[in-house]
Write a structure and sequence with these properties.
The protein is α+β, with helices and mostly antiparallel strands and 314 residues long. It is 52% helix and 13% strand. It has two domains: 18-136, no CATH class; 159-273, Chitinase A, domain 3 (Roll), CATH 3.10.50.40.
Length: 314
């Protein structure tokens, strides 16, 4: 959401090198850029000016314009944007600071003149402001997910208990064939009807692959799947199937549809708690995370006042 500062015609101060001239040239942008970026941050900076110290993220205050601070961070941000790794002299840095001071003066003068009431300006500002609000929510959502994840720790005893209760399923491998469509419920229904009429699974599944080379493995053959590879929305269906049997239509999220055939299943004694502990922990952590997230959200909804105002009928 950062935009380059405005630099009016001419230079902020004398420069002695081509490098400095090059840098100053890069930081000239149209006046509207100043309006958009400073409108978002200047008011917030005024409110927070008294709270800033040298130890804050913003760094030292290098100048103030009618109480609005211009910080070390502001200067470094602009240097990073225009210098592209080039060395910047103290003189060029000072010129950038002077440019930021001019930008703030122009902004404050524009407000006094009432230019912020311009409708096009207000429209563009609203767009940028909405993007900024979305950005803040997205960034803090990442912190929120991390907070939930840390709260959803899984102990060894919980993982062990899960294995013991589900050992039969965990130690079983399932050889599965599938017919899969996304967003085409009518086609999966048609294929299912053909299967129910007695047509072989291979013949129905192969319709989607008319030019499949003979030496190529059938794409509908998923091979043997371990318990952690089986989608949750398959679980009830595959548990009820005996080898050679075909499921009903299984509907998953995002308009995904399957019909599966259980070709074979076998118990693998090499599958133990030690081999599966890491996957069990991930499964339990996800369950805990989902439950905790839903609980916290439900509590927030309960104590919050949410209003959907009625829009005027057209």
């Amino acid at each position: 959401m950062q935009m380059p500062p405005f630099h009016p015609p001419g230079r902020a101060g004398k420069t002695n090198t081509n490098e400095e001239k090059k840098i100053l040239k890069k930081i000239r942008v149209p006046l509207i850029a100043v309006f958009l970026i400073t409108s978002l941050f200047s008011c917030a900076e005024k409110k927070e000016a008294n709270q800033k110290t040298d130890s804050d993220v913003q760094g030292k205050i290098l100048a103030t314009v009618n109480g609005v601070p211009i910080t070390e961070y502001d200067v470094k941000r602009n240097i990073k944007r225009v210098a592209h790794g080039e060395k910047v002299t103290p003189e060029a840095t000072q010129n950038i600071l002077q440019t930021l001071v001019r930008n703030e003066l122009i902004y404050q003068q524009s407000i006094e003149l009432g230019l912020d009431n311009n409708q096009e300006y207000r429209r563009k500002l609203s767009e940028v402001d909405a993007q900024f609000r979305d950005y803040k929510k997205q960034e803090i959502s990442n912190l929120y997910r991390e907070y939930i994840k840390n709260k959803a720790a899984v102990t060894d005893s919980e993982a062990k208990e899960y294995f013991e209760k589900n050992s039969k399923r965990i130690q079983t491998k399932f050889h599965v064939w599938q017919i899969y469509y996304r967003g085409e419920e009518a086609r999966i229904a048609e294929d299912y009807k053909e299967l129910k009429s007695g047509k072989s699974f291979e013949k129905v599944a192969s319709k989607r692959f008319p030019n499949l080379p003979k030496e190529m493995k059938a794409p509908w053959d998923l091979g043997y799947l371990y318990w952690s590879q089986i989608p949750a929305f398959w679980q009830g269906s595959i548990d009820r199937l005996e080898p050679g049997k075909v499921s009903d239509i299984i509907k998953g999220p995002n308009e995904r549809f399957w019909v599966i055939k259980l070709v074979d299943k076998m118990v693998d004694p090499k599958i133990t708690f030690a081999t599966e502990k890491e996957r069990i922990v991930e499964v339990l952590r996800k369950q805990k995370t989902d439950e905790l997230s839903e609980t916290m959200l439900s509590r927030m909804r309960t104590k919050s006042k949410i209003i959907f105002p009625k829009l005027p009928s057209e």
